[in-house]
Amino acid sequence: MKLLLDFLPLLLFFATFKYADAQPEWAAGFATEHLGFLVSGGQVPAEVAPVLLATVVVMAATVAQVLFLKLTRRKVDLMLWISLVLVVVMGSATIYFHSEMFIKWKPSLLYWAFSLTFLVSHLVLGRNLLRKMLGGELQLPDDVWARLNWAWALFFGAMGFANLYVAYEFSSSAWANFKAFGSTGLIVLFTLAQGIYMSRHLPAPDEATDGAADAKEQGR
């Protein structure tokens, strides 16, 4: 359920863009009629209408996602709050200026926010986010946790630049494909690689049991 909720805004963005991109004249007319009052000049060009409509949908979906979590008394992660702020700010700029580049920058800013969070928590606060999230389930050496933290920081930094490269060098359709499948696939592959790396440094079952017992004893 949580996985579907996390990916729902992305899926709705992609579906809306593809539908509108297949009939840009209709999309331009629909966007001008229903969103013209929000757009500078009141007219939505056909070449940006698909992205604009998809942006409106992803903004509404992200707001609904946060409201659903709040109403069901579930935790709203910090990164979701950051995503909400970015999608509202960059989405509003996309709509008003009818320029697709604003919303295309949003994933990069989000990736860089992730990267900065990993770096600041480690270098400034002296905390390892991965260890905080997974340390209760996995026992790994300190240097391994540090490498994993650095790896995620560098990965998200690189993903931000990759998104901008696709946004500026390829069509909006290609960028939408990359956003929905390319970036998601890269994250899945990187996560799998991290899992393999962690598995090579996990203690043997008997060592893990002893380590857990020692930790419990020290906590008394």
Structure write-up:
It is a multi-pass membrane protein. Its main location: membrane. It comes from Roseateles depolymerans. One of its GO terms (cellular component) is plasma membrane. This protein is mainly α. It has helices at residues 2-21, 24-35, 49-71, 78-96, 101-123, 129-134, 142-169, 172-199, 205-219. Mean pLDDT is 87; it is low at 208-220.
Strand-helix topology:
Blueprint: H1 2-21, H2 24-35, H3 49-71, H4 78-96, H5 101-123, H6 129-134, H7 142-169, H8 172-199, H9 205-219
Transmembrane segments: 46-69, 78-97, 109-130, 150-168, 174-193
Protein name: Inner membrane-spanning protein YciB
Pfam families: IspA
What class, by secondary structure content?
A: mainly alpha
SSE string, helix = H, strand = E? HHHHHHHHH
Alpha-carbon Rg, integer: 21 Å
Helix fraction by DSSP (H/I, runs of at least 4) = over 70%
Distance between the termini: 37 Å
- In percent, how much strand structure appears in the residues? under 5%
Number of extended strands? 0
Give the biggest beta sheet. Answer: none
Mean pLDDT: 87
Label the overall shape.
Answer: elongated
What count of domains describes the coordinates? Answer: 2
Low-confidence regions:
208-220
Helical element count?
Answer: 9
